[in-house]
Amino acid sequence: MYVLGIFIVSLEDALNPFSPKIKGILNCVHKHLESQKYLFGNTASNEKLVLNYCLTTQQVTCKSFEVGVGSVKPAEFKFLASPIRWAQIHCKYQMDHVYHISDNESDWPLKKHIGIILDIMNKNLKSSIYLFDGELKDADESVESIGKKKISRNSKLSGHDDNFKPIHVCILQPCESGDLNSFEISDSGNQIRIFGNVVSKLWLNPKLSISGASESVMQDILRSMSTRLEMHWDSLTEEEHGEDMNSVHEPPRRVLINLPNSNIAISDYLFPGEGPHDAKISLEEMLDIKINSEKDVVDAEGQADLSDYYNEAAETESEEMIPKKTLETTPSLYYIGAVLALFVLILSLGLHFIQGN
Fold first, then answer.
1. How far is CA 185 from the centre of its chain?
2. For residue 243, what pLDDT band results from cuts at 50, 70 and 90?
3. pTM of the predicted model, to two decimals?
4. Which H, E and C letters describe the chain, residue by residue?
5. CA distance 291 to 1
6. Could you tell me if 270 and 252 are in contact, meaning their C-beta atoms sit under 8 angstroms apart?
7. Which end of the chain is more exposed for a tag (fewer CB within 10 A), N or C?
8. pLDDT of res. 327
9. For 217-241, how does the pLDDT look when each residue is reduced to its tens digit (9 = 90+)?
């Protein structure tokens, strides 16, 4: 999803002449999206569109603004007679990565570590293989060639994407390779373990190529992770420091909300303890829409189950305590063992002497 531009509702024509204030807004939007690289908000070009609806004339006009250059040109547009047909892409991306922190990096703020982790995720996703419905497709093949159903007469009339069944994408990441001589052993002061699932659900143009669809999945995962980690960072009351700090961070989870009279759903994020009702109220206020029921809010990822983590941490802690106790009792065990060995030796010599006589 890209930010194509802005729309303006005004009493008079707001685009003739093209106001410097509008240019400033477009430059500001472009600059903000450019600074947040994992939002992928800007398109490949620097073009931003302005759509203006004039209340007096009830006319709609559109112009194109080139960011950085400052040129303004008329833009053609048209309203479609029927809804757009979309291809649905489903993906569940599983993560379990350990990020090691050296001693001199332990005092870095959490936000800096988060940025590095996102860079690592970006690198891994770019080098991954994307399977569509379990098959490796040609990069130039179109999405609509996968999973097509027979188009019924009803779906033709409705214009919905009922003729496309959801396409499931599986991501295969390459294993780290190399000989033993290429690895280095270094001291690690701390570590951050990232584990869990990211649910991605996309609506794409059926004409899009497989390579474009793969890139869309990658961008959606990174955009979602970047958004929820930024929200989590903003929610922290204080920064955590300390050599023995062992804490669990649970960023917001993703929920999908079905839009009224549409097959498309949008994303929202819920913090731990929040439920579908919170997402319903938030989106109704933000978008001025009416969500029929909380059932339209799909908790795609669900609450995180941290019981395995706490059990593992408890086992690790108990294992670390056992050697200390063993070291404390070791000298007394040596003395007891020596006495028992001497007693056995005397007993065996006595038996041997009795049998000999």
1. 30
2. very low
3. 0.76
4. CCCCEEEEEECCCCCCCCCHHHHHHHHHHHHHHHHCHHHCCCCCCCEEEEEEEECCCCEEEEEEEECCCCCEEECCCCCCCCCCCCEEEEEEEEEEEEEEECHHHCCCCHHHHHHHHHHHHHHHHHCCEEEECCECCCCCCEHHHCCECCCCHHHHHHCCHHHECCEEEEEECCCCCCCHHHCCCCCCCEEEEEEEEEEEEEEECCCCEHHHHHHHHHHHHHHHHHHHHHHHHHHCCCCCCCCCCCCCCCCCEEEEEECCCCCCEEEEEECCCCCHHHHHHHHHHHHCCCCCCHHHEECCCCCCCCHHHHHHHHHHHHHHHHHHHHHHHHHHHHHHHHHHHHHHHHHHHHHHHHHHC
5. 22
6. yes
7. C
8. 38
9. 999 999 999 999 989 888 886 655 5
Looking up tokens 């939007």 gives 29
Instruction: With CA atoms as reference, report the closest residue to 97 among 192, 175, 186.
Output: 192
Query: With 70 as the cut, is the pLDDT of residue 132 above it?
Result: yes
Cβ–Cβ contacts within 10 Å for residue 316, how many?
A: 11
The one-letter amino acid at 239: E
130: amino acid identity, one letter: Y
Confidence of residue 182 (pLDDT cuts 50, 70, 90): low
